[in-house]
Amino acid sequence: MKSYIVNITMVHVEPAVRRRVIMPAGATFNRLHEMIQQMTNFESYFTDQPYHFFEVEVDGLCITDNPVQREELKGSKRLTPKLPTRVKIDKYLEEHKQLMYTYDFGDDWRFSIELEEVVEDYHFGFPTLLDGEGTAPPEDVGGPPGYESFLAIMEDPAHPEHDHMKQWVSNARYEPYDKDRINQSLKFVKYKKTEWDCINHQNYAIISDPYRESELSEEQVVAKPEKSVPKKSAKHELTTEQQEVGQYIKAMTRLYGMVQFEQVVTLYNLQNDHKITVGNLQELLASSELETSLQKEDILYKDTVFLGPKLVGIVPEQFVRETIEKPYYQPAKEQLLRYADPSYFDQTPELHHLEKLFQKENIPQIQIDRMLHTFMVGLSMWHANFMEVIGRLMAQAGPLPEEQVKKIVPVAINVSNAVRLIENRGHTPQEMFELERTDVKPLTEQAASTEVKVGRNEPCPCGSGKKYKKCCGR
């Protein structure tokens, strides 16, 4: 597929920090941002609320994820604001050969992105780091001058700030340059389908490739064909066993976010007379259509762990740190397998109550169904922002009387407390609170209005269409 080899260099940073990477064409500027964050020690992309923003100015456009910047540029004759999720880099990269990316306007980090070559023989759906140098600075170190001071202090044990700085950086993401680790992370920046029929591989493990290193030793390679093609059944269909196991994988990754092979096998064996082993599971993945079926639904596996679609773009290590001490919610088989359907969500009494409130507003049922589906998907995402999610819901409903809004918000909060979340390993916020295994409390109306902040220039969550500062934020 068409791909770009680009050199990404941090400007005014010493020692030099450079990354040479190949990336499939078709990336948005937001994907470019995600890729840079994966290759450095910056991490705002992986938080539920980005606290640092980026922008790229090119051809009269200001492409930025900063809502305040976009608002201020509305009507500007110099720059037109654009959302980075809606603009692809291809045209600008090919025409200009170089782009300047600015991140965190406080520290003012700048990256030069230079196009080295356009190629057609890269076949992976995610970027690959080809080579590079230099450990990237940690977040909030103070820009290039601050990083220079940071390095001097860290290298001088006698410096009065040395112990303080050492303690500070221990809580920050400051990992040394590691090509293998970065390439593992870049697999999650996936925006194209991997063309396995063009890659020399064995059971989806790379034997040889011009851009990615072999994943098998010579002893592991059973045969070395020019192009290894995955084995398929005669009719290219899943067997009954593959379908059943696939349903468990899909359901468990959607309910838990991440699940180990052993957990799939254990729960499957508890709920079925037919038993399987981890070895059986690996055979099913290696010699059937099962992996292809999972990939189509953005379910990946790494080593012996399955990663669900809600973890796309999230650092797995961060997810593990936040969930490792929480117990798993374990429903009966019939209930569990409902989660294999990507459009499924629990029809709770709270949700039916919310539906009835919208029905009283004479909103067409088909529109209510779409609204509630979007609302439930939003609430179930990793570290969902309640105010953003309910803001979209109210905007879809259209301006409503203030009296009705006051009725809807508490019910919507009750709905959110009954949603099964991957960060709670399938438990609802209310269940986790009752288990007394976490400090997270169910959302309350007061918490929704005070703990979750709405920007003054953002749309008011009441659905009035006005800015927050000119409506409920007065």
What would your notes on this structure say?
- The protein is α+β, with helices and mostly antiparallel strands.
- It folds into four domains: 3-186, MM3350-like (Structural Genomics Hypothetical 15.5 Kd Protein In mrcA-pckA Intergenic Region, Chain A, Roll), CATH 3.10.290.30; 201-230, no CATH class; 240-338, Orthogonal Bundle (Arc Repressor Mutant, subunit A); 349-470, no CATH class.
- The protein contains 18 helices and 13 strands.
- The protein has helices at 29-39, 67-73, 90-96, 143-154, 162-170, 179-186, 240-256, 261-271, 278-286, 290-295, 316-323, 333-338, 349-359, 365-380, 386-397, 402-416, 429-435, 445-450, and strands at 3-10, 18-24, 54-58, 61-64, 80-82, 98-103, 109-119, 128-133, 200-202, 205-208, 258-260, 300-302, 305-307.
- Strands 5-4-3-6-7-1-2-8 form an eight-stranded mixed sheet, with helices on both faces. It has a three-stranded antiparallel sheet with strand order 11-13-12.
- Helix 13 crosses helix 14, helix 13 (349-359) packs antiparallel against helix 16 (402-416) and helix 14 packs antiparallel against helix 15.
- The N and C termini lie far apart (52 Å).
- 28% of the residues are buried.
